[in-house]
Write a structure and sequence with these properties.
Elements (H helix, E strand, L loop, with lengths): L17 H17 L2 E3 L2 H9 L3 E3 L4 E3 L2 H10 L3 E4 L8 E4 L13 E3 L6 E3 L2 H12 L6 E3 L12 H10 L5 E4 L4 H15 L2 H6 L3 E5 L6 E2 L1 H12 L4 E5 L2 E2 L7 H22 L5 E5 L2 E2 L12 H17 L3 E3 L3
Parallel strand pairs: 1-11, 8-9, 9-10, 10-12, 12-14, 13-15, 14-16
Antiparallel strand pairs: 1-3, 2-3, 4-5, 6-7
Helix pairs in contact: 1-9, 3-9, 4-5, 5-6, 6-8, 8-9
């Protein structure tokens, strides 16, 4: 699978033409070059400035030279393995391969014994992880429900602990703060027998979410930097909301979210050239009547289909939510 190519043998729902792909990429480059992104965190700003970006430290605004963006795309592996505890639990992603991951981060659960709708617990998460681990149709696990019954400052570590004790598949996790992220990586390294072993066979995939429109906060830039230094796969996933946090048109939204994701990719590839990247999207529309984000909306599927095509165009594995 190459870079910036027009594939003609992809079956399925191709919402974008070859000209559309070229136009979206060019519009994204213009946006990143002329307007830029807000990228928070001095370490991230210093890294980007050192690579040739124009950085306004007072306003945390970064403008990206187009050659730097294209180079970062070129450095992303076209396929790689999301490793499980043992090779039989590995999942190869990229190209035309399709893998499945559960949707997640629910805060309520229907009690399986009483039918009551209640706040989810750490025990619930462990049970769900063990259940999904046994389902052959699901390849990768992400936090299905949150642990609402623990200290919320370290909730993500409680969640990691109970998942690690009930899962043999690859574990995709989003965390808050550098300290918690490092502790999570420490846990994974302990399981694998050291940081070098974890780099060789990363049993975890890290998550980083930009804030639409056109912003990546310090928590996310720090996670990208730390994860890249450890050589861990990073899912940079935008959750734009058409008509609210991104333009009302799908084309405008795709340009906006593309710029956000590519901004994170540039940072990761500067820190660790060749770092494994998932191009992620869980973008949908805002329901103008209720101000909610309908994950089941047709426009969500359209955005996800477009992201799949962009992934083929860039030669980067993609991850779309809610499909």
């Amino acid at each position: 699978m190459g870079k910036f190519i027009h594939e003609t043998d992809i079956t399925g729902y191709n919402i974008l033409s070859n000209d559309d792909l070229d136009a979206l990429h060019e519009a994204t480059l213009q946006l990143m070059e002329d307007y830029g992104l807000q990228m928070h965190g001095k370490e991230a700003l210093d890294i980007l400035a050192g690579a040739g970006c124009e950085v306004d430290y007072e306003n945390d605004r970064v403008k990206f030279p187009r050659n730097l963006v294209n180079d970062a795309i070129e450095k992303c592996p076209a396929e790689f393995t999301l490793c499980g505890r043992t090779p039989d639990k590995d999942t190869l992603i990229g190209g035309k391969k399709v893998a499945y991951k559960n949707f997640g981060t629910g805060v309520f659960i229907f009690d399986p014994y009483t039918g009551e709708l209640r706040e989810s617990t750490k025990e619930d998460l462990g049970n769900v992880a063990r259940f999904i681990d046994a389902i052959p149709e699901i390849d990768v696990f992400s936090i299905a429900v949150t642990a609402g019954d623990v200290n919320q400052k370290v909730r993500s570590l409680h969640e990691a602990e109970v998942v690690f004790n009930n899962l043999t598949k690859n574990f995709a996790h989003d965390l808050e703060g550098v300290k918690n992220t490092q502790r999570f990586i420490d846990m994974a390294a302990a399981i694998q027998g050291g940081y070098d072993k974890l780099r060789e066979r990363p049993i975890v995939a890290m998550g980083a979410c930009p804030n639409s429109p056109l912003e990546i906060n310090e928590n996310e830039t720090s996670i990208i930097i730390l994860s890249a230094r450890h050589g861990l796969p990073i899912d940079i996933l935008s959750m734009g909301l058409c008509g609210a946090t991104t333009p009302a048109t799908l084309a405008g939204t795709l340009v906006c979210t593309n710029a956000e994701i590519l901004g994170g990719i540039v940072l990761a590839q500067i820190v660790n050239p060749g770092n494994k990247i998932l191009y992620g999207s869980s973008t949908t529309i805002m329901d103008m009547k209720t101000a909610q984000s309908p994950v089941g909306a047709p426009e969500h599927a359209m955005c996800s289909a477009a992201v799949g095509q962009l992934g083929h165009y860039y030669g980067i594995p993609t991850n779309v939510g809610g499909t």
